[in-house]
UniProtKB/TrEMBL annotation:
Catalytic activity: aldehydo-D-ribose 5-phosphate = D-ribulose 5-phosphate
Enzyme class per UniProt: isomerase
Tagged with keyword Signal: no
Pfam families to which the protein is assigned, alphabetical: Rib_5-P_isom_A
Source organism phylogeny: Eukaryota, Sar, Stramenopiles, Bigyra, Labyrinthulomycetes
Swiss-Prot/TrEMBL GO biological process terms: D-ribose metabolic process; pentose-phosphate shunt, non-oxidative branch
GO cellular component: cytoplasm
Family affiliation: Belongs to the ribose 5-phosphate isomerase family.
EC number(s) recorded for this UniProt protein: 5.3.1.6
Protein name: ribose-5-phosphate isomerase
Length: 232
């Protein structure tokens, strides 16, 4: 199976195992969860499932509405039963790097409001330690006025690479759904994600990092051979 099939298998397995009738579901961002939203829409149709979906980004909101799923928000559902999302890298302890798609802030908020965070990913995301395979750096959302001093502080913290994320189809830097900028900082293999996250969060102007430490309870990996493996 190629990568896309692996994503599809993982996302469908996660939705099938964790979404039950009557649930309020946090919907993640990125390309893997898109398959999960399609599966959820199938189940709503086939099983008459009653769910409400809370997005983690403009993209997630589009996925929900394009698949005719009931759209809600944290004002109406401040406590969610489950959040299902993707990841850029997963370590042995289920710590994550997220934010490859630049949506980690609302993703972390929604995940923190859910009883359970479940991740679906293809085989490329499975690492022993964070920073092993994902070399683009930890996505760090920052308040725009502060990006230059924050980049300097990250370099002083011995980040190997520190990059302001630039937009692809628009001149200038990538701007998040919250109107902020993103700095990608690579620290090599991360032995103590909790410590690093606390250090990064302590920098004034940092809004949220893509380190999700001790949040996920289960990860579904789609494999090249068409199987789905899980880690808890
Ligand atoms: O940006 C994000 O946090 C996404 O969830 C990312 O971590 C996974 O995106 P992908 O499923 O397209 O690889």
């Amino acid at each position: 199976a190629g990568v896309e099939k692996a994503k599809d298998l993982a996302a469908r397995a996660a939705v099938d195992e964790f979404v039950k009738d009557g649930m309020a579901v946090g919907i993640g961002s990125g390309s893997t969860i898109a398959y999960g939203v399609v599966r959820l829409a199938e189940r709503v149709k086939e099983e008459g499932l009653k769910v409400v979906c809370v997005p983690t980004s403009f993209q997630a909101k589009q996925l929900i509405t394009e698949n005719n799923l009931p759209l809600s928000d944290l004002e109406n559902h401040p406590q969610l039963d489950v959040a299902i999302d993707g990841a850029d890298e997963v370590d042995d302890d289920l710590n994550l790097i997220k934010g490859g798609g630049g949506c980690q802030t609302q993703e972390k908020i929604v995940a923190s409001c859910a009883k359970t965070l479940v991740i679906c990913a293809d085989y490329r995301k499975d690492s022993k330690a964070l920073g092993e395979a994902w070399l683009k750096g930890i996505p760090i959302e920052v308040i725009p006025i502060a990006y230059v001093p924050i980049m300097a502080k990250l370099k002083a913290m011995s980040a190997e690479t520190v990059t302001l994320r630039m937009a692809k189809a628009k001149a200038g830097p990538c701007v998040t759904d919250n109107g902020n900028l993103i700095i990608d900082a690579h620290f090599g293999q991360i032995k103590d994600p909790a410590k690093l996250e606390a250090q990064l969060n302590g920098i004034p102007g940092v809004v949220c990092t893509g380190l999700f430490v001790g949040m996920a309870v289960k990860v579904f990996f789609g494999q090249e051979d068409g199987s789905v493996t899980t880690r808890t």
